[in-house]
Amino acid sequence: MEIITQAQAKARGLKRYYLGTPCKNGHVSDRYTNARSCVECVRTKEARRLATPKAKPVAPVAEAAPPAYEPEKTLHRDPGQRISQGRIDACIDRIYGGAPRLGATFAESVAA
Questions:
Q1: pLDDT at 74 over 80
Q2: Which helix (H) or strand (E) holds 85?
Q3: Terminus of the chain with fewer CB atoms < 10 Å: N or C?
Q4: Of 36-45, 72-81, 91-100, where does mean pLDDT reach its minimum?
Q5: Maximum Cα interatomic distance, the chain, rounded to a whole number of Å
Q6: Distance CA 4, CA 82 (A)
Q7: pLDDT digits over 23-39, tens only?
Q8: Per-residue DSSP letter, 110
Q9: Residue 99 has what pLDDT?
Q10: Where are the beta strands (DSSP E) in 2-103?
Q11: What backbone torsions phi and psi does residue 39 show, to the nearest 5 degrees?
């Protein structure tokens, strides 16, 4: 092989050049012009990478069932928006009807 420097190889537009000296791993082979890396080192690194099995994706964890209705806790529709207990009671009244409303007199709750 012809001994050629990296600068000469770049000037000629070559992808590889040969110095005739061993790399840090002892390979005496061509080197790539763009990264100065030894061709044999790149081949062994790529072979090692392909031989290593890829990590398998982790199966998603099943979500827990939503908690049961607990009227003593404050519910959230959006992270920044809270629903007051009075509003919860009003919604339950509209759904189930007949339950006394907060602050309402007995006559008003019976009439509703």
A1: no
A2: helix 85-96
A3: N
A4: 72-81
A5: 107
A6: 74
A7: 999 999 999 999 999 99
A8: H
A9: 53
A10: 16-17, 31-32, 75-78, 81-83
A11: -60, -45
Phi, psi of 24 (to 5 degrees): -65, -20
Please give the Cα distance from 71 to 91 (Å, whole number). 12
Tell me how far the alpha carbon of residue 13 is from its chain's centroid: 41
Going by C-alpha positions, the residue among 91, 41, 45 that lies closest to residue 71 is: 91
How far apart, in whole angstroms, are the C-alpha atoms of residue 94 and residue 104? 14
Residue 56 identity (one-letter amino acid): K
Q: Which amino acid is at 98?
A: G
Are 15 and 32 within 8 A, CB to CB? yes
Query: Taking the CB of residue 9, how many other CB atoms lie within 10 A of it?
Result: 19
Q: What angle do CA 69, 99, 72 make, to 5 degrees?
A: 30
Q: What is the pTM of this model?
A: 0.46
Q: What pLDDT sits at residue 72?
A: 54
Tell me, what DSSP letter sits at residue 31? Answer: E
DSSP E strands in 1-112: the ranges are 16-17, 31-32, 75-78, 81-83
